């Protein structure tokens, strides 16, 4: 079993306590261990970040861009090693882990490019002989809390823009999946990131929450995870001038209209629902189908789901990986049992897979449910597993109403050949991400990302929009004086 160190103040450090990391394909023996830092080391990480900010914010944007570009190159050079660890600690297929690793490099390269651009605008001034502009500046020390489902790409999405803009960070990876975040930190460290700009806190969140959240030097917190935790953070910040960027829950819907290409829609919904075993923030978990094509579409959906091969992520033939932990597996199974008690009908799946080599893993079969009402819990609550629920509606308007009848508003898709309905759906669906004839997941690095209502906060991630979170705007007016009259 490997023993890893964590990055703090530019040094790779350890402690006397450890956290074991397990492979969800077989949880019997740990695959690695990382330091379980005590609260005092969290405070020390903030010390390092505060000191580093004074230097990093004045570092040339071109030097920041160079470091991010070099880190991206190192990640690409190490793609096989990194992807293998993403699969080992998270469970996702090697193909998914490889894609995640390469996308993390994309984030670094994209924000390296933005670091080279000026963040500001030249403005007209009513006063004579004045030149006025805005400029964007880093806000300071930012706490980054990332989840276990995308353990590499989420840190990349959060850290790349804030570092490019001149902020420093204390980064808390998920307890279940710390290896991926440490790979990201090592690439930046090896690329020459100055000491203290990035500090990684590995440890048990329950033991570190006060030290992580209550440090007075925090200027912003970016968090991806559950609504329960996100709301707890929000309440904790209520009387403090600390920005909060939250990417929280979702109950994403795909709408299949009667004029849709049904085989294409079925394949897309299966990809959106069961990729990463449904453990994506943008995974489709509700399917709303116009009544005339409900029976045929449901038949195709079940056929496509049953083609998936359940297995360990390290097996190249696997197309449905295990869930990321025994806790998550048991949570999904409890949601399924509750759904059946409330009248849902299992069209396929609906249980754990414990056959043969899967006996010691976190496997749940791909599941399609039907015969639910808008009040059924599994129709309204996030499951975060390989489960999709199908319901028929009468027409387009009813489909949009069903999409919007949710506490969440992250992503939605519509499948149709009617361009008018496509645009109407884009206008009327109350979600931050809208897809037409494609999957609810799959948003590239330059595309603003985030949800409405309980799915998140006003600060978007990705693209240039994220700079609204990680920078502040200063307005500067300069009286250049009356120009002297030219002499002949």
Largest sheet: 7 strands, mixed
Stretches where pLDDT is under 50 for at least 5 consecutive residues are: none
Estimate the global geometry from the Cα principal axes.
globular
Spatial arrangement of strands, main beta sheet:
15-16-17-14-13-19-20
Query: What's the N-to-C terminus distance?
Result: 84 Å
Rounded Rg: 24 Å
> Which structural category do the helix and sheet elements fall into?
alpha/beta
List how many beta strands DSSP finds: 22
Brief overview:
This protein is α/β, with parallel strands linked by helices and 488 residues long. The protein is built from 15 helices and 22 strands.
Can you describe what's shown?
There is one protein chain. This protein is α/β, with parallel strands linked by helices. It is built from 15 helices and 22 strands. A 7-stranded mixed beta sheet has the order 15-16-17-14-13-19-20, with helices on both faces. A 5-stranded parallel beta sheet has the order 10-9-8-11-12, sandwiched between helices. A 3-stranded mixed beta sheet has the order 1-5-4. Helix 9 links the parallel strand 13 (252-256) and strand 14 (284-290).
